[in-house]
Amino acid sequence: MFREVVLGLGGNSMVEGVVKRYGMQMGAARFVAGDTLPEAIERIREINGHGVKVTLDHLGESVRTTDEAVDAKESYLAMLDAIHQAGVDANVSLKLTQMGLALDHALGQRHLHEIVARAAEYDNFVRIDMEDTPYTDATLALLEEAYGAYPGHVGVVLQAYLYRTMEDLKKLSDPPKNFRIVKGAYREPVSVAFPAKSDVDENYVRLVEESLRLGNYTCIATHDEQIIGRVLKYIHDQGIERDRFEFQMLYGIRFSLLESLAKEGYRTRVYVPYGKDWYAYYVRRIAERPANMLFFARALIDRG
User: Fold this and answer.
1) Is the four-CA dihedral 206, 210, 212, 213 of positive or negative sign?
2) Are 200 and 161 within 8 A, CB to CB?
3) Which CATH number goes with the domain that contains 82?
4) Rounded Cα gap, residues 187 and 74, in angstroms
C-alpha cells in the first residue's frame, strides 16, 4: 500500500514541483551522485577505493523529441569516454525510452547499437535497464539484437515482480548472457505482477538460482540480507565459482553491507546515478523502502 501511494503521488504535478525545488537538500543527494559527469567520475573513484565496482547511469527516462534522444545518446558516449580516460572501474546503464524508443523504434535501436559499439571498443559493458511493461518485449528484442552484434558487451535487467520473467530468463539464456535481477520498482497491475512482497521475494530467489543454473553471469541486485544469505547458501551448496556472479546495490543504500561482501572476496558493484533529471528515480527509491522516506522527513525537519 505504501509503495502504491508514493508512486501515485509521484505523478502529481504539485508534489513534483515541491520535490524538484527542495529534493536535493531534502534527501535526494543521498541517492544521486551529483549533477555533472565530472562529479560522478570522482565519486566512482572513491567507491573503487573501497574495492567496489560501479554502474553509472545518467538519469532520464522518456524523451519528447528526437533532439533530446540524440543528446541522451551523446551523453552516454561521453560517459564511456570519460570512464576510459579516467581509468575507473565502471560500466554504464541506460533506459531505451531515454534513447528515443517511445518516439521511434528504429531511433532507439540505432542509439543503443552506437553506445554498445563504443563500449566494445573499450572492452566495456552496457546494461539495458528494464522499464514498465509496455516496453518489456521491445527491450528484450533489442537486447538480443545488440548481443548478436556485440556478445559480452551488453546485458539486461530482469524484474522479479513480473509473472513472465522466469519464462523470459529461460528463453534468453541460450547462449548464456549477463542479467541483473531486481525485484522491480514500477507501478504495475496485478494482472502482470505479483502484488505480495513475499511472492516477489520467493520469485527473486528462484530467478537467481535458475540464472546461475543456466550458466548466466548473474548480478544479484538486492539490499535484503535474508535473500543474500539464501543465495549465498545456494552458491556454496552448488560450488558456483565467484567469477560467475556479483552482488549489486544502489548508491546511498547499505553500502557498508556491500563493502563487507567485497572484503570477503565477492565481486560487488554499486549503481550510481547522476544528472539533473532525478525526480522519477528518487520517487521510486522512496517507494521501494519505507525507511527511505525517513531521509526525506529528517531533511524536512532540518529545514524547518
Assistant:
1) positive
2) yes
3) 3.20.20.220
4) 30
Select which of 43, 118, 127, 180 is catalytic: 180
Q: What is the mean pLDDT of each run of 10 residues along the chain (304 residues)?
A: 44 47 54 90 97 95 91 98 98 97 97 98 98 97 98 98 98 98 93 96 98 98 97 98 97 94 98 84 65 49 44
Evaluate whether residue 284 is within a structural domain.
no
Asked whether residue 10 is assigned to any structural domain, the reply reads: no
Query: In angstroms, what CA-CA distances link 96 with 73, 142, 264?
Result: 10, 9, 35
Cα(62)–Cα(273) distance, integer angstroms: 16
Please report where in the chains the cell 564511456 appears, as a residue: 80
Q: Are strands 245-250 and 178-182 parallel, antiparallel or unpaired?
A: unpaired
Picking from 217, 223, 203, 192, the residue whose alpha carbon sits closest to that of residue 160 is: 203
Amino acid at 31: F
Q: How many domains does the chain have?
A: 1
Q: Does residue 3 lie within any of the structural domains?
A: no
In the three-class reduction of DSSP (H, G, I as helix; E, B as strand; rest coil), residue 96 is classed as coil
7: left (phi over 0), alpha (psi -120 to 50) or beta: alpha
The answer to whether 131 touches 158, Cβ cutoff 8 Å, is: no
State the amino acid at position 248 in one-letter form: Q
Residue 129 among the catalytic residues: yes
Contacts of 283 (CB under 8 A, 6+ apart): 6, 7, 9, 10, 19
Q: Look up the domain containing 134 and give its range.
A: 32-277
Sign of the torsion angle spanned by Cα atoms 267, 154, 184, 244? negative
Query: What is the Cα–Cα distance from 141 to 1, expressed in whole angstroms?
Result: 33
Question: Nearest CA to 163 among 214, 200, 205, 213?
Answer: 200
Is 132 labeled as catalytic in the residue annotation?
no
49 within domain boundaries: yes
Q: pTM of the full predicted structure?
A: 0.85
The residue from 43, 127, 129, 284 that is catalytic is: 129
Distance CA 288, CA 270 (A): 17
